[in-house]
Amino acid sequence: MNIDMTKLTPETPAPRHDFRRFVLALGHLCADMNQGMLSALIPFFIAAYSYDYTTSAYLVMVSNIIGSVIQPVFGHLADKKSRPSLMTAGIMLAGGGMAVTGFISSFTGLCIAVVISGIGVAMFHPQGAQLVNRTSDETVKATNLGIFSFGGNLGFTLGPLLASGSIALMGLKGTILIIIPSIIFGVAVSAVFKENSHDSDSSPVEVLSDTPAAPQRDMWGAFVKLGMLISCRSIIFSGVNTFLVMYFVDVLGKSENLGSAMLSIYYAVAAFSSLVGGFMADKAGARRTAVISMIILVPSLFVFAASLSPVMSIAMLVPMGIGISVCYSPMVLLGQQYLPNHVGLASGVTLGLSVSVGGITAPVFGKIGDAFGLTTTFFVLAVFSILPLILAALLSKPESA
Length: 401
Fold this sequence. Notes:
The protein is an all-alpha fold. The chain has helices spanning about 15-50, 55-80, 85-100, 105-135, 140-170, 180-190, 220-250, 255-285, 285-305, 310-325, 330-340, 345-370, 375-385, 385-395.
């Protein structure tokens, strides 16, 4: 059945669009699953190749440093022309790069593989987030971005489980199994969005009303401030992701598999929190939701760093996951609202910064861990978390909201 999208108003139900947003969330799951896998694979690389914390953190850095530059470029391209094929190619590269890591023994080769995977992730995000924005009514944009974000965070949750399970089954070469979800979801995304590869200004997936939108002003200053907040949040997010498994292994004396399970619990809480955060932003406002998120994050990080009890450390994973991810969807929405004329670019920058900046700074925290121990690393992250709380409180009200 063909639906003439130009006849729809925001009040008219669009079931195909609802379905497509869930497909985008599944694609997001598949893309970000590879980033979750990397943190879980690092302890196995350390055991196999005797890397120190700093060296292993460089893998996270090189995975993200290219994405931080490329992702806004793909966002700009999405503003010019809808290219769903980039999502398919990105998912395939993300999974393929990570799948070959178990067959590579040289550090340089591992860096190349994770860079390829990082480029794939960068290709997916801007186009996916832009399509979510274009197919959503104003009253539920944050909720739909929450669904999209939930897919990505669920990917972070499942990634460590798939990685550790594959290695338990086949050894390091079991990483080849990582490519299977990429193939499945890549084909699904390609099939559902194959007809939308024309100019975004006229794309039927973007037109929900036949009433032209009024011109809106881009708030570049507010967007820069938001970028600073997202960068700070990214640094904390990446720091926890990179060293959480090793903290349970080296500080608390637990196994690598238990550490990976704890990372998955943390990711699971973060995933559901991103879904709740989208709903909260539609009801209470994106700025207020971001502040609440940071208020939860700061004390939970301090308690986690101060406690050497495994029970307390596990308990703190819940508020830490809530605090780090309730703000995720609201911040992506704020970026799109600050730059209403450059939604793809805003999506590329916000989604890119949400992971990439933290990956670039990961070696710094690795050096702190090598010199003073991982307990000190988490104390530094806790102190640093005060800065994004201040930035969240200073966010401007978007004119396009």
